[in-house]
Amino acid sequence: MRILLACLALSYPPSDHLEHAADLITTASGLYYLSELVEEHTVIAKRFITRMVYFIMVVMVLLCAVDRFPVLHTLVGVASHAVYLGNMRRFPFIKWSDPLFLVSCGERCMTHYSRTGARVSSRLVFGSNCISACGI
After folding, report:
1. pTM for the whole thing?
2. Which domain holds residue 45?
3. Taking Cα atoms as reference points, which of 92, 89, 86, 85 lies closest to residue 40?
């Protein structure tokens, strides 16, 4: 918690600290409430999550077909969600050594890096060019 508050202190002007702290507490409370609902109603939650994963897969394919979404990113996303569906077979329990769970963690990291890696490196170069151009 201290690390998060320190990051907030360094990244936002002082007038925004209270607002971001309130956002953080509100989000944490909402996630806690959702986890309690899932714990009490596991069958309904499993059904809802499974349907949402299928819905997301359909939306991704439609975006690829209609809006010319990148095909590679769409295929990786659909494959990731297929692995997530495999993880639903033991819901709400997670077996940390399950190969499917480990694959889903690896896929999540791979998806994140493949979608943000190039943009982050270009921002760093752009940012350093701006800093050097300003004489800072």
Report:
1. 0.62
2. 41-136
3. 92
Would residue 15 count as lying in a domain? no
Residue 101 near residue 95, CB atoms below 8 Å: yes
3-state helix, strand, coil in the chain (%, to 5): 85, 0, 15
Nearest to 23 by CA among 4, 51, 50: 4
CB 103 within 8 A of CB 80: no
The helix-helix angle for 42-66 and 71-87 (nearest 10°) equals 170
How many domains in the chain?
Answer: 1
* Structural domain contains residue 26: no
- Give the tens place of pLDDT for each residue, 71-118: 888 888 888 889 889 888 888 888 888 888 888 888 888 777 766 665
